[in-house]
């Protein structure tokens, strides 16, 4: 378990909950517009937290904090994630997981074992543009000699994770899909494809891209607000509960 960050208090990461956010290092994607460059690209260069240190903090904050958000990086790459979440659950916290959806078996396990109460799954783009959007061409996790089949497996896993959430009937479990919208990667046609793919989802959020010093690659742009609202309108044809984040 590579724990590389702790936000001790947030009202933003877990909707309607006062939470702490734990950041796990490492990711199998290299989305060039990602805001967590150090967690993704150079995780071993950051000073880690011991799991016991996080659990001790959460134990002291019982009765003040309500929830814990597990983010990254990509948390589901950690095989010991279930044990860590079980220890948090023992303390009485609800848990939200942020994931890119590339590990459906882990997602299913966490959901079925009631180790997560909320899941936010990133949908990077329409399927035909996933390869470019997640930086697959420069991704060391996909063998160059077998890049096509590796991409097919990845997309299959993404679809499986989406289906796990779309088929949810557990009223105690909440989920959302979300897409960070970048002008260079996302257009109107992508919104049509994604919303049809996720038709009937409980919630979908479009997040406007904002550049900062921590992005993997600089030089990307957000759409103007009018365009973003038009994308929301497109998505609401298939996902009525679609909203825009990151625009005042």
Can you offer a commentary on this structure?
The protein is an alpha/beta fold and 248 residues long. The protein has an 8-stranded mixed sheet, with helices on one face. It is 32% helix and 19% strand. The chain has 8 helices and 8 strands; from the N terminus they run ββααβαβαβααβαβαβ. Helix 4 packs parallel to helix 6 (147-166) and helix 7 packs parallel to helix 8. The chain has a single domain, classed as TIM Barrel (Alpha-Beta Barrel), CATH 3.20.20. It has helices spanning 37-41, 51-60, 81-90, 104-112, 130-133, 147-166, 188-197, 225-236; strands at 3-10, 19-24, 67-71, 94-99, 118-122, 174-181, 204-208, 242-245. The N and C termini lie far apart (36 Å). Helix 3 links the parallel strand 3 and strand 4 (94-99).
In terms of topology, how is this protein built?
Layout: E1 3-10, E2 19-24, H1 37-41, H2 51-60, E3 67-71, H3 81-90, E4 94-99, H4 104-112, E5 118-122, H5 130-133, H6 147-166, E6 174-181, H7 188-197, E7 204-208, H8 225-236, E8 242-245
Parallel strand pairs: 2-3, 3-4, 4-5, 5-6, 6-7, 7-8
Antiparallel strand pairs: 1-2
Per CATH, the superfamily is: Aldolase class I
* Main sheet strand line-up: 1-2-3-4-5-6-7-8
CATH fold descriptor: TIM Barrel
Q: What is the average of the pLDDT values?
A: 93
- Give the count of structural domains: 1
Q: Which CATH architecture?
A: Alpha-Beta Barrel
Helix content: 25-40%
Strand content: 15-25%
The radius of gyration over CA amounts to 18 Å
Basic shape? globular
Number of strands: 8
Distance between the termini: 36 Å
> What is the string of helix and strand elements?
EEHHEHEHEHHEHEHE
List the uncertain runs: 139-146
CATH class: Alpha Beta
Structural class, judged by helices and strands?
A: alpha/beta
Largest sheet: 8 strands, mixed
């Amino acid at each position: 378990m590579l724990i590389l960050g702790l936000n001790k208090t947030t009202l933003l990461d877990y909707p309607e909950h006062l939470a702490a956010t734990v950041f796990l290092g490492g990711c199998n994607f290299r989305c060039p517009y990602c805001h967590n460059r150090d967690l993704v690209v150079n995780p071993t260069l950051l000073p880690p937290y011991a799991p016991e240190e996080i659990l001790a903090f959460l134990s002291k904050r019982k009765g003040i904090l309500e929830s814990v958000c597990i983010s990254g990086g990509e948390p589901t790459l950690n095989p010991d994630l279930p044990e860590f979440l079980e220890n948090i659950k023992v303390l009485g916290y609800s848990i939200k997981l942020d994931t890119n959806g590339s590990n459906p078996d882990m997602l299913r396990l966490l959901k079925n074992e009631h180790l997560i109460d909320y899941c936010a799954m990133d949908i990077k783009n329409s399927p035909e543009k996933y390869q470019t959007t997640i930086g697959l061409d420069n991704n060391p996790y996909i063998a160059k000699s077998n890049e096509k089949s590796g991409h097919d497996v990845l997309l299959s896993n993404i679809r499986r994770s989406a289906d796990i959430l779309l088929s949810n009937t557990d009223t105690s479990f909440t989920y959302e899909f979300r897409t960070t919208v970048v002008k260079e990667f996302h257009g109107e046609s992508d919104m049509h494809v994604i919303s049809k793919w996720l038709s009937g989802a409980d919630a979908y959020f479009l997040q406007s891209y904002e550049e900062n010093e921590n992005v993997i690659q600089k030089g990307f742009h957000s759409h103007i607000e009018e365009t973003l609202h038009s994308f929301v309108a497109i998505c609401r044809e298939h996902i009525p509960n679609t909203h825009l984040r990151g625009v005042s």
